[in-house]
Amino acid sequence: MAKFFYLNAENLSSLPANVAVPSYNRDLIKTSILHIGVSNFHRSHQAYYIHELIDKYKELNHGICGVDLLDSDRKIYNILKDQDGLYTLYTKESNGVHKAKVIGSVVEYFYGPENPLAVIEKMASPEIKIISLTIAEDGYLLNEITGAFDINHPAVSDDVKNPFNPKTVFGYLTQSFKLRKARNLPGCTLLSCDNIKSNGDTMKQSLFDYVSKTAPELLDWITKNTSFPNTMVDRITPITNAKDITMLKDDFAISDQWPVVCEPFSQWVIEDKFVHARPNLEKVGVQFTKDIGPYENLKLRLLNASHSILGILGTLHGYKTVYEAANDSDFMLFLQAFLDDEVTPTLTDSNNERITEYKNSLVSRFLNPHINDQLFRICQESSAKIPLFILPTVKHQLLNDQNIKRAAFVIAAWAKYNDGVDDNENSYNILDTMSGTLIRTAALSIQNPIKFIEIKAIFGDLSQNETFASSYIEALTQLRANDVKSCIKKMILN
């Protein structure tokens, strides 16, 4: 058997020359960033950028203290503790070149369920200048129907009863801010890195709603001592599988229990409003801006919408990965027409050159055969994605009396997707917070197509728009009678 090395601090110097390892002494790093939610995406994105800043410019004051708060996070916590916070970023380029880089920017790690008071104390530490987050949309506790913070959520009630053993990120933040205020310490920047629209504004509103109920005397201090920049984050990061772990061991002699696979492309745009002097991340390619809107709209309506469309249509046809769907010329012709004719007119805050460049980059990114991005991952929680990625295009186009035919077809395809059976009669699971509603209304739409778009939590009043409703009903009628592939071919010909 070929020799390999377990990934930890002791074995770093023994790794082969084709593995990039930290050039810095990790013992000298000071943590000024506390990150909540040490997900695959955080490790492929923010932790990568911080690593590059430390590695290339020896800025040792910006190390990351990782924090996980969920019971389900115990596995990653145990693995990273076992590996001294180290992990491998396994970058796969479309030409077959694979690169392994050991990331060393996570130098401390806390696990909330094990010691919540230690997490609160660390959050309150004056050395922590930035508290960043990847907690996914459900971590913001937003009401499914209104989109506002759900002040009646059971986890909030639990926090009120057990303030020093909180279940929510807001409970931890509130207790840490109480300590900062009592100790006359400065505040910090809260930096959301989640893929939601206006993520900083959403974080701020949710926190203020929570504090208004649980600790209203803290509101003035938070207002004066914190900031909430909006950000745009972008890097395709699929689920790590056993094959990736084996390939990493075979090709680079690294035994990493949970490496992170990603594409070479990466982008991070941040509103430049920090409480303290921020890390000089522009040195490693991060863009700072006064207006996140144009960047956010490009990504959500082009990349994320494209992903959802390939996920829904591809699953119905029987494909399993983004690469398979992107290699289907019919699907890509449909997608390209949707982006050109229906999305591009909505991107009024971006210039044509930027839009064209971004659309062209999507094609090459989707056609990377080595990024094994599963369609079931793309389709998860579509009830939260469709309103964010596709419906803004529908609403803009309707308001301006423009084409929505392909967008309506996608919504009809999503209704059929919720039947849970593809065009080859193979079943698949529907993983969605609203799965009960989606499956029930999809079944009702077999007899009465309008039923699916009457889900107000998703579509609002769109079912009452005659143009949208008629286009949707026509598309769903065709999809119920034919397979998705033939429907798309017909649309292309027309």
Overall description:
With 494 residues, the chain is an alpha/beta fold. It is 46% helix and 13% strand. It is built from 21 helices and 15 strands. The strands form four sheets. It has a six-stranded parallel beta sheet, sandwiched between helices. The chain has a four-stranded mixed beta sheet with strand order 2-6-5-13, with helices on both faces. It has a three-stranded mixed beta sheet with strand order 11-14-15, with helices on one face. Strand 5 and strand 6 form a beta hairpin.
Topology overview:
Elements: E1 5-6, E2 19-20, E3 31-36, H1 40-44, H2 46-57, E4 63-68, H3 74-82, E5 87-92, E6 98-103, E7 106-111, H4 116-124, E8 130-133, H5 154-161, H6 169-182, E9 188-192, H7 199-214, H8 219-225, E10 226-227, E11 231-234, H9 242-252, E12 254-255, E13 260-262, E14 267-271, E15 287-289, H10 293-317, H11 322-326, H12 329-343, H13 352-366, H14 375-379, H15 382-389, H16 391-399, H17 405-417, H18 435-444, H19 456-459, H20 466-481, H21 484-493
Parallel strand pairs: 1-12, 2-6, 3-4, 3-8, 4-7, 5-13, 8-9, 9-10, 14-15
Antiparallel strand pairs: 5-6, 11-14
Q: What portion of residues is helical?
A: 40-55%
Main sheet: strand order: 7-4-3-8-9-10
- Report the radius of gyration as a whole number of Å: 23 Å
Kindly state the mean pLDDT as a whole number?
96
